[in-house]
Records
---
Amino acid sequence: MIDLIDVSLKYDNQTTAIDDINFKVDDGEFVFIVGSSGAGKSSIIKLLLRERVANSGTVLVNGYNLNRIKKRKIPEFRRKLGVVFQDFRLIPTLNVFDNVAFSLRVTDASNRYIRSRVPYILNLMGLSNKAKRFPHEISGGEQQRVALARALVNDPPLIIADEPTGNIDPELSYEIVELLQGINECGTTIVMVTHEHELVRDFGGRIVNIEHGRVVFDGIVPAGGHYESK
């Protein structure tokens, strides 16, 4: 599903963002990638979405070698991912239904399929009664659930959640992670990137801790447990 092999990334000012990291995510896993601001988490996301290309090493995602992928294939690659962002990135002029449907329309899905698939996903996210609302008419937690519904509607094998709890109330953060866990239990691979160590410790599971562009911990931690750098 994901395999980063001896990967390094430097920006134009020669700042090292990722320093020779290795980790693999298998089909069906739920993995937290944690680290403080500036640790390299955003750079990993950019590599996984092919927004940046590694200076060295190999980045494999969903069967694509992102070092060698042709530019014309990048949109196809991205359509097979579900991505959830911290700032939701909903289209303000579209209601909830159409925000979710947008992900299907760009793949030329039929109107008949959209009319059946979108209500199903909205119901799954507890948003059936919000379908006609616009983003500014719903809460931050609801907006994040819409973003999650949009990521899920194409039934992607992999969802990458980039700080999905960063702009919502702390109590709602647990709700979002529980929703992601439920999606994972149905077979979707989940990679959640976050700086919220306490939240991650409360849930437990596989945790990859990044510091200064390096993997300093990668292991399974029980709920309520602790993890330490190498």
---
Amino acid sequence: MKYRYYDIVDQLKKRGSSPGLDAVRELLAVLGHPEREINVIHIAGTNGKGSVLAFLSSILTESGCRVGRYISPTIHSYEERFQINGEAITQEKLEQYYGRMEEALFEMEEWSERKPTLFEVETALAFLYFAEEGVDFALIETGMGGTLDATNVVERPLLTLISSVSFDHKEFLGDTLAEIAGEKAGIIKEHVPVIVSENVPEVCQVIRERAEEKEAPAIFLTEDMAQVKEESVKGSTFIWKKHRFFIPLPGRHQVSNAVTALAAAEKLWEMGAWPSFSWTVMRQGLAKTRWPGRLEILRERPLVIRDGAHNPDGARRLAQFLEKHFTNRRILYIMGVLKDKEYKEMLSFLAPLGEELYAFRPDNPRGLAAETLAEAAKRCHMRTRVFSGVNEALARALLLAKPEDVIVVCGSLSFMEDMDAAIWKQGKLL
């Protein structure tokens, strides 16, 4: 069956991106303001906001809550953008909701000149879906910034969270860390508590000033709050507030994201918004977290890892992980990036650890030409090959790689939905 919403999505994509809240406010007004009927936890940040959302969602779900998750981009399917307790909306239900969104857009056109973008329509749809499904909490991830992000239409969230802030989307958010942090801090609301992941002092200062301006209680987390006891490619064990936790997402940065989720859950309990608090629930929730595309191991021999690193800070964290665990193994990158990303700086972190790079252009209007990426990699003293897509590159890499090699698929989350599982599943999975 061909669902009509795919055609609607394709048409809305042509409207591009337009930061601002007016259009989404008007659309939500037509829908009856469903965003006012749900308990929203709003999450912003450059890197890590999706992981924080995944950890917190898993904790709250473990306690028996009904938890909505609105995320983008997605790994396996478009429908994953709208989830309840980790289950994506069905195609049949999404068809119904897009039919209603289409009706709302027609009604809006009768009195407004504004034309909502795809992200604005998706945001409104998520609020409507979660309100009608009666979720206990709706975890809402910003798309790009904060202040003018469509999700910031929420006037009174329960809690706001800000993960790691670094350089990205400079053309929209600013050229300095302070400017970018200011945009992320735009989600902070008057008297609403904000939890902030470990960040550099410059970022913390901007967020602290915004929180004081809004009289919002702020909790700033630091690296020394958690003691990492063990790290491996299968995850990390750490101590926080004298309690031991295990997370199945590898990388030191995921410990920071997990602590942010723990602090958020504890704050919800202190506020009386989450009566199901227990250390057992927190521990089991973290241990059951699943978040594909983040240092995700797809195959064992050769080892295939995919990671959504798409900016310099993400590339730096990926490089730290590779250097820690695979110093004496040959690393081959399969990489596609978007042309508005700082791919040369990304390569400066990744190239010293890798021997070869297979470049391809993501199937995206913003995709960088594979030849351009390959030329930049050559200047970093890497051997390169050019391919038409991620699946062709991965198939070739698996054919040529030795069992002890490490293949890393990275550069963007945008192409991961296109990856063909049949290619890597020809080997044993961890």
---
Amino acid sequence: MNEGLIPSRYAKALYEYASENHVDERVYDMMHTLESSFASEPQLQQVMANPFVGSSDKVKLLLTASGATDDDKVFARFLQLLVDNNRMASVRDVALAYMKIYRDAHHIYLVTVTSAAPFATAEEDRLKKLIERHLNGGTMEYSHSVDPDLIGGFTVRINNEKLDASIANELKQLRLKLLSN
């Protein structure tokens, strides 16, 4: 069976359940925190896949890693469903799938800007406004990083769409033109 299908089904069920209980945004925030925990602590995935770590310990670890509180009953109940169905090893994939479903439903775009050097505040604000106009009323989760290998300019990634206005890309295109002649 397709490994992406199972997390997607669990994520969809969680989203529908969370929406019915009016906590879909809270669950999204917890999934975002959980994914950040997985990204910063690679051993977390190994613990989830380890059959010698007890299910209750895994649940406690995930509740802590997600920032859940005693009021987050929907999330706790969902984790118990994963335990009951022996799917704890898929929890990171479920978190990623849930975030995608939530973003799609709420017209949220992942925007990543990478530049050769840090932007001045006014430049970055102008770029953000330009990107917002491109989103047709959607909102964005914005992140910015610096990569000196771009030499100059910047790249903008909106979900899977990429605009490359870097000097490194222009040099690459020029090189390809020269080689094709």
---
Amino acid sequence: MLIQRITVGEIKLPLKLPFKTALRTVTDMHDLVLIVETDTGHKGYGEAPATAVITGDLLDSMRAALALIAPCLIGKDLLDFHAILNTVHQSVLHHNSLKAALEIALYDLRAQQFGVPLYQLLGGGVPRIKTDVTISVGDTATMVRDCLHAVAQGFDALKIKVGARAWKEDVASTLAIYRAVGPGVALRLDANQGWTPKQAVQVIQALEHAGIALEFVEQPVKADDVAGLKFVTDHTLTPILADEAVFSVEDALHILGTQSADMINIKLMKTAGLSQAMAIANLTRRLRRTCMLGCMLESGISVTAAAHFAVAHADVVTLIDLDGPQLCQGSAITGGLSMDGPWISLPDSPGLGITAVQGLSNVQSY
């Protein structure tokens, strides 16, 4: 199975609601799509969002990097799989999301080569998982309305975006949401680096004193403020989850080894794909910790890959945040995962199970 062609294009899907966090406001999901084709007629699909405020990736910069990587892959034999992955990672520095898209497409082909779903190639498992759903920052009434709507759809875990307003407003909104949805719904706060360490402690302690048992608080402080992250972890009872602070195995080892956070959030777009995500999951397992598997604003292509990864690593991936496709109006793919409220199911077809992508624009081939 030789790599014969690599095609790149873009998909753009409007969101059901504006996606608002402490870092940005987005109204459309606009991602890069890769299709890696072989001489046997097989196609592997990958996807990369341009999340400049987190990964530094832009659509144009990823295209420029692909122009350097793609010629190095044409003609390569999938039997030399690890050598191909090394080529992807050594051809250019950084560009984690692009590398993730390439890895996803290559692992898709690898699983097709063996005739098995990707999750079986990665270790097996039960191909059904349950995700939370994101509630964007807004006024309290709007956030309560959105939470009640999500609960009516069957979601029993809500990831609530905070950190974009005065910390006392975050406390007030969380209290109002808790009263509206009741104790049977898990509340996860995601500050996206929006607080100082002292503000984070004030928010979390205020909610603890109010009797609200949050499932966790995600990335309360700046990504590079590991000392501040540890300060929050040391001064609160609520579990603290590191997200933007963890891109690599080294980051995960430092965060967990210094007890700067209780858990970490693995995202394929941060780890540059499945291979390093697996290494982080293995490290987490050795340290007897658990983690979350999350996503950026991604469609069903990369989220399907993430779901396969979560299924295969269910012993350590105990929290799922793969709601990207649920936030979009419609879908651009045929095949792949199916979503029913919070439930994600994977097909038993080889690879990702994706057979086509519709509506690609700005298409270019190598």
